[in-house]
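Retro notes, structure queue

What went well: the backlog is down to a handful. What didn't: a couple of records were mislabeled last round, so from now on we paste the full input next to the output in the thread. Example, using DUF3553 domain-containing protein from Falsirhodobacter algicola:
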Amino acid sequence: MNEILEPGMLVRHPAQPDWGLGQVQSRIGMRVTVNFEHAGKVAIDGREVHLVPVFE
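Corresponding output:
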């Protein structure tokens, strides 16, 4: 699922709803960097976490 993510897309972390809305900064292979409202910039291993795209 993370393969469709591109910089600028909005996402949520399924296990961390308190992090709020995140914006994808980059995706290199399965490593996705996201800037979350309440957690800041987080590097995520896409093999372990499937981010949920937000289409608003």
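Agreed that this is the format going forward. Reviewer comment attached to the example: The mean pLDDT is 95.
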